[in-house]
Amino acid sequence: MLQGFKDFIMRGNVVDLAVGIVIGAAFTTVVTTFTTGFIKPLIQLLGGGTGTGAGAWEPRKGVIFDYASFLNAIITFVITAAVLYFLVVFPLNALAERRRRGEEPPPKAPSEDIVLLTQIRDALVARGDNPDAPPYGRHQEPPR
After folding, report:
1. Residue 48 CB partners (closer than 8 Å, separation 6+)
2. Out of 39, 61, 109, 129, which residue is the most buried by the measure of CB atoms under 10 Å away?
């Protein structure tokens, strides 16, 4: 059962989905909080200005370029992408490469249910049953 779960998880599309949605969304919240709480105030401090004008450029009255928020969003994206790549994608790619080289054993044989169903199918084929025939035989009526 655990081997089947491992094989399911190791499929590329399932791993990509998990990384893109679950881990990405959860980790983005952490990174956004970090950059909003620590990085953006640092940008505002370095950029000069005080109060609501810190981290923004106002060339004319009412026209405000909030460069601190933009830089904050870029930093959030880069941190999130780097962590996901180095902690999830890179290790899974290394594992897949080891499997290709034969350093890790390939997935085991099919489960017992699949083997049993295959044997039943093969027995029916060997008997000569027609899969298109009605389920009650060729000349039998269904029970009433």
Report:
1. 54
2. 39
